[in-house]
Specification:
The structure holds two protein chains of two kinds. Chain A is α+β, with helices and mostly antiparallel strands. In chain A, helix 11 runs antiparallel to helix 15. Chain B is an alpha+beta fold. Chain B has two domains: about 200 residues, Cytochrome Bc1 Complex, Chain A, domain 1 (2-Layer Sandwich), CATH 3.30.830; about 180 residues, Cytochrome Bc1 Complex, Chain A, domain 1 (2-Layer Sandwich), CATH 3.30.830.10. Chain B has a six-stranded mixed beta sheet with strand order 1-2-6-3-5-4. In chain B, strands 7-11-8-10-9 form a five-stranded mixed beta sheet, with helices on both faces. Chain B is globular and about 65 Å long. The chains are: A alpha+beta, B alpha+beta.
Chain lengths: ~400, ~425
Amino acid sequence: MIHFDRFTLNNGLRVLVHQDNSTPIVTMNLLYNVGARDEDPNRTGFAHLFEHLMFGGSVNIPLYDEPLDRAGGENNAFTTNDITNYYLSLPKENIETGFWLESDRMLSLAFSQGNLGVQKSVVVEEFNQSYLNQPYGDAWLLLRPLAYKVHPYMWSTIGKEPQHIKDATLNDVKSFFFSHYAPNNAILCVSGNIEVDEVKRLAEKWFAPIPEREVKLRSLPKEPVQTEPRTLEVTRNVPYDSIYMAFHMCNRNHPDYPATDLITDLLSNGKSSRLFQNLVKERKLFSDINAFITGDVDDGLLVVTGRLVQDISFEEAQNEIFGELNRLKNEKVSEYELSKVVNKFESTFTFGLTSPLEKAFNLCYYEMLGDAGWLNSIVGQYRNVTIDDITRVAGSIFTPDNCSTLLYKAAR
Amino acid sequence: MKNELNRSVPPLVVLPENIKVPHAAEQKLDNGMPIFIVNSGEDPVCRIDVLLNAGSRYQQNNLEATATASLLSEGTTLNNSQQIAEFLDYHGSFIDLSADRDWGKVTLYCLEKYFERSIAMLAELVMQPIFPEKELKIWSERSKQKLTLELDRTSTLARQAFFNQLYGKNHPYGRFATPSDYNLLESNKLLSFHKKHFSFANSTIILSGSVGEMEFGIVNKYFGKEEWGGQNEPVYAPIAFNKPGIGLKFVEKKDAVQSAIRIGCRLIKRNHPEYPIMLIVNTILGGYFGSRLMKNIREEKGYTYGINSHIVTLRDDGFFVIGTEVGSQFTQLAIKEIRNEIERLRHEPVGESELQQVKSYMWGEALRSFNGPFAIADNVISLLNFNNLDYGFYDQLFKTIKEAKSENIMNAARKWLNVDEMVCCVAGSVNPEA
């Protein structure tokens, strides 16, 4: 049970507080409800580039990091297809520094041309480092547009191509800021050694004066049902063949989300899982195999990826994976096996919520989904998944027509 | 009447005067094995680490230490690989098995409610593995593929070249396994490595999380009753070092769009009196986001997504290393700027404002490093590894952070960081000397 308090400022900023006096630290997590899915298809990678720019100085504070260092703090941020999330932690004595810094960059940025130029270059190097200079690094850049034809999940947070980042102008940056960064489009959680009344006082002082803004309304096209198998084959200079199979699945708030998550756990969470025991250890077809869900807010993907053992053909690999997927559709999973994956989920969930920062982020995330309080009912939702749910959901997902397959062939 | 908020004035900053270092409770099991207990945290979770004199420095052939640790969970006298995996997954327990240069380490994470049965299983894995040939073969094939893939990354190539240069290709701290080494592993070799290195006399236990007297009793029941293992004395013996290599080493990787760069030199051990001041030197240069290298090479020039420097301590040595991946076209420029920044530290005193910033940052880091039971356990482990849990290390570190002056920093940089005696390894498509 994670206890928390919640209040909303007049400008629409939602604030959550989790008090934990066992730590000398206070953390702040600030989630903006904007991600790569909110980008113009011809200006992709923008939400993420923007995250970099948020560290380049705000309207009244020329440098973000330096005063935070001076207060003994640290910070970071990340961008996904759905959200942009900023977090920091400080010794409890100095938490007001966090309110000061975060509220000023919510108010407005410095919008410096020089900083934009450098950060464009930094992000292009990030593109190189993470996607181009790594074996299999571009797999997701290929898989997304194969699986999505209309929904903006068709591009990665880094963007479709480095040119989109190079083309960004200061005007683009300004308009992105004022249509997405606003108190009424953000959720703040303060967690750690601090009283609720103190958070109220500081939030009123620093965030309440920021005016509510007109946020660009999100109206994203729903990805149509896929009606035939899709396959893309590429050859790259990598040592082993790999296969990526992506199936469309439900959205984050759908009642079948927990069952879908558990299906991937049955398949590949832990060494006792089906794909690992049968296809890696028993049949020796793959050196590595994984099944997971993307966890997106809108309709997401269930993905199976495998690295083939030498001399195994793509056809055999694909057939054997489908064999395991079909078994989930056609044979009932045992009580034991279902309890096993639920137990493991509970344990992963519990271990994943031990630090003040993990608590703060998750509270913000569930509040964005609808209610921070859901965090306390998740394990129950997974416990309620039945054997029949698994069969039913597997049946609806695992069809060849719902599958986009990337065959990533080794040139050597 | 509301006062107008002046946002250009930062709130007053106060750093806590003292940092409380939580000590682990030190006890002994019945057989004399040391155990350190960190009982803290409000979550119903536990972690147990078994630290062993079983690193790769002790092996006769490449990969023996890693294979021995990794295969502990692949079959015991009582359970086969699948039964062990089922047990761990069903109880939501996680196990990490690893060997680095100095230490073998077995870590189990479990829910408090399954503590006893998890510990029973852990003891079985540590004391009674049988290393079945069949499992060894499967593991070897998979690991060989992983290593082959790793060797495709410029970062791996640069890192391996760095250790080769620094310590020598055949030195216990400098050598690396190749994919074909996996073909030479044999079950009986792992059994004998296990017999010699996995014993009560070579092990220390660190217990952390929601743990008390009851949990101590359980650990004692499974680990403390006998003099288990085939070795009654610790096997540790210090290793000797050659003169370190210096100069440039280029590893070509055609078509790479970035160059991986590693620059550094051998340095002091963690129990050296100048270690704390060198931590400050390192932080200024490349140890945090506001560092000079990050500012210069990322935030001003945009050559890279990131650049960092580290002081790494091994049991018998220590080294300093700067690491980055830069756009291929920036290779020479980046190396030049790295050299410039080291020279600047050696010849210009650090300004008061920057020094204060670094000190405050390090003070906050120190505070955070004791946040939560597992972070405290990590600190206990690193102290144990290097100086037998002498908490005086922290007093010295905190004192140095508070008192260090510009000239102390410049003197330390001059003494320990000499660019002309450093190793510079570059992996990529651009040879910086061409």
